Amino acid sequence: MRAIRELAYVEVASSELTRDINRDLILEQIRAAQPISRVDLARRSGLQPSTVSSIVEQLKEERWIRESATVRTARGRRPTQLLLNDDLLMLVADVRPTQAVLAVVDLNGRFLSRLLVPLASSVKSSVEAIAVGMNQLRSQHPGKSFEGVGLSVPGRVDPQTNRLVLVPNLKWIDYDISGELSKKLKLRVELENDANACLLSELWFGHLDGMRDVVLIAISEGLGTSVLAGGRLITGRNGLAGEFGHVCVDANGPLCGCGKHGCWEMFASSSAALRYYSELRPESGKITMNELITLALNQDEAALGALHRQAEAIGRGLRMVDAALSPEAILFAGDVTMFWNIAREIIERECTAGLLTKGGPRLMSTGDGELALLRGAAAVVLQRHSGYYRSAHGKQRK
Questions:
Q1: Arithmetic mean of pLDDT over the chain
Q2: What domains, with CATH codes, occur in the chain?
Q3: How do 99-106 and 111-118 pair as beta strands?
Q4: Which has the least CB within 10 A, 59, 122, 205, 267?
Q5: How many CA atoms lie within 13 A of 332 on its CB side?
Q6: Helix (H) or strand (E) segment spanning residue 323
Q7: Tens digit of each residue's pLDDT (9 = 90 or more) over 341-375
Q8: Where in 119-240 does DSSP place strands (E)?
Q9: Most confident of the following: 63-67, 135-139, 161-165, 232-236
Q10: In the predicted model, is pLDDT for residue 60 greater than 50?
Q11: 263: which DSSP letter?
């Protein structure tokens, strides 16, 4: 776990990075084993007691952690126990083309409140709606401190500018979303691709069991992918690495939001499943993905047929993912997790049918639908704000 967390960063190695790694390690150990004493932290982390004490004091001063009651021991001084500070919260959003799901999350990844906000086609109006909704949520938690804001978005974000550089399903290019939202909320705002955010969440909250080569695929209106290779989160030039969803799989296929025809996304996304259903039941009218899944769970033949066709397309596309990256596991987030029992065998069959070698990657579901995207947005705030170097550079907290 420590090796994965150490390599999940892409900054140039430096003394600041070393301090970041040690702080992240201590913060993760506290999260996983809380309440825990300084002595046990040193034992579990392998760091010197003096280093642990120094980091703990910094984390306390910045309010990431707090002390709890002492523990009675057979002899000697009673050790003070440490926990994550549950008075420090984050505002997060899972942004979709027509709506945003907003939430308040604590440092343990627990959801304290949620709100659904419809979005207009105008990015300016959408950012205003998100700000209003987040202020409404913040008002429900008087006396609490807010560390920052995380947005999980269906597009690619330049890590240097914190701006969207590719977002086929939204008209949000060339607008300083983080800057404008930060002005309205008086908090730092972090943007991240939804798949990258989900993968960061799996790293922060410890669900990968030491795996170092993983691909996460987030499926909703579009299809996004994130890559952990050799324990390192790969972002690539301008944050564009991993755009398998916009690889052409059929040049005669439907027109994609990116302007090309036949992208994998056009056959494997939730939008594709809804298109399949409308072709089978043209008289049905417009329905949502949740409604389609409900119909399928009630054995509606057309709904089952649409989801089966989507699952087949997902599985076929995984062949190129496996050929390119050969991951240990492929993890799914988003809408597909809500009908995983229907989709898994189909996806696995189609994937393994085209593999170069026997034994394909392990297929896994995050198992909690939109919550994974929201928890991912929280993980982005944690990852970018909690390190020694990052925390010392201009953080606003309200």
A1: 87
A2: 2-84 (1.10.10.10), 88-199+373-391 (3.30.420.40), 208-365 (3.30.420.40)
A3: antiparallel
A4: 122
A5: 27
A6: helix 301-325
A7: 999 999 999 999 877 777 778 999 987 767 888 98
A8: 145-153, 156-158, 163-166, 189-193, 214-219, 223-229, 232-234
A9: 135-139
A10: yes
A11: B
pLDDT band at 15 (very low <50, low <70, confident <90, very high): low
Residue 319 main-chain phi, psi, to 5 deg? -60, -40
Per-residue pLDDT averaged across 145-167, rounded? 89
What is d(CA 307, CA 295) in angstroms, rounded to the nearest whole number?
10
- Cα atoms found within 13 Å of the Cα of residue 333, Cβ hemisphere only: 27
C-alpha torsion sign, points 204, 68, 52, 74: negative
The token duo for 130 is 């998100």
Contact yes or no for 216/236 (Cβ under 8 A): no
Sorted by sequence, the CB contacts under 8 Å of residue 102 that are 6+ apart come out as: 91, 92, 93, 114, 115, 116, 117, 130, 133, 134, 137
Using CA atoms, how far apart are residues 381 and 375, in angstroms rounded to an integer?
10
pTM of the model: 0.81
